[in-house]
Design goal:
Radius of gyration: 19 Å
Number of helices: 10
Oligomer: single chain
Strand order of the largest sheet: 3-2-1-4-5-6-11
Length: 321
């Protein structure tokens, strides 16, 4: 019998890609998701067991944890902007939810990989964010995700739980929601450009991001999941490559011209910077490479092309139905 792995938030954008990889590897996968941001459709083609419930509900988590040996805890209420609007909801989903999952993992003696966030670093006067830096969260989302990390460290120390905290940077790819005010920039830009609308840019567009393609990310997550490390380790899962928002916009405009033959593209509209946003976010992935063999294969440029083509196919399918 294959090992049984629980993926919290498995019906979401990142979670569904992780479940897809685990299923291809022949693993038995259980998903716990309240479907507040995730979608059943994301798992429709996968042989997973889906429990609908909240990670902040101990009974739901205990039920989903039955027979599990490993956990990937992805469930959260994403978005810095949303956390500014709804800080207590964000805390409940991210911080309280993580404590509940760790408590159940302790009882099950299950290894845990926790999806941390690069937002923990805040704005720091270093080129690359490395795991030795002191955290400086700038938003309720960053604070709640960091609180989850602190719970991971304490559970490792007090109870001997094996945990890897994986700090995600700006993850993008197919199935990322593109129709929300909290959508990631690549998803939002792709949808707007494909529909012939002007994109919205918050700030001057020169903020730098370490955009990471979702397939490379989930491969790294599984490497951390399958390792034999003990205690609590913290690693960045990203490329170590900075791209500005304006660079992303220019590349997507080039894809629109190439794929659609469009010559006239509406100029972007600029708005004030979002409260709580980090100016520059660039990872040092050295520790993930050395400790867990993290070695991305697809990369940003190819990932961006694949992502844009996926949104293009979705738009074509929607318009013909």
């Amino acid at each position: 019998m294959s090992e049984r792995i629980l993926v919290t938030g498995g019906a979401g954008f990142i979670g569904s890609h992780l479940c897809e990889l685990l299923c291809r590897q022949g693993r038995e996968v259980v998903v716990l998701d309240d479907l507040s941001t995730g979608r059943r459709d994301n798992l429709a083609a996968l042989a997973v067991v889906l429990h609908q419930g909240s990670v902040a509900d101990p009974a739901a988590v205990e039920k989903a944890m039955a027979g599990v040996t490993k956990v990937v805890h992805l469930a959260a209420l994403p978005s810095v902007a949303r956390s500014v609007d709804r800080p207590l909801d964000t805390h409940h989903a991210c911080a309280t939810g993580t404590a509940v999952v760790l408590q159940a993992a302790k009882a099950a003696k299950a290894r845990v990989v926790y999806a941390g966030s690069s937002s923990a670093y805040g704005n720091q006067d270093v080129l690359k964010k490395h795991e030795g830096l002191r955290e400086d969260p700038l938003s309720p989302y960053a604070a709640s995700k960091l609180a989850g990390e602190l719970y991971c460290r304490s559970f490792a120390r007090v109870y001997g739980l094996s945990v890897v905290v994986t700090r995600f940077f700006n993850v993008f790819g197919p199935r990322q929601p593109a129709d929300s005010p909290y959508s990631g920039v690549i998803a939002a830009f792709s949808k707007a450009l494909l529909e012939g609308r002007a994109v919205r840019i918050d700030g001057d567009g020169l903020q730098g991001r370490d955009f990471t393609y979702v397939e490379d990310l989930v491969t790294g997550v599984v490497q951390c999941l399958d390792a034999d490390s003990t205690g609590c380790d913290t690693v960045n899962l990203a490329y170590g490559q900075s791209t500005t928002v304006m660079d992303v916009y220019a590349t997507l405009c080039a894809l629109v011209r190439d794929r659609l033959g469009v010559s006239q593209i509406p100029a972007p509209t600029f708005f004030p910077p979002r409260q709580g946003d980090v100016r520059h976010s660039l990872a040092d992935p050295t520790r993930a490479e050395q400790r867990f063999g993290f070695a991305p294969r697809i990369g940003f440029a190819e990932g961006l092309r694949r992502t844009f083509d996926w949104y293009r196919q979705q738009l074509s399918r929607d318009s013909s139905s």
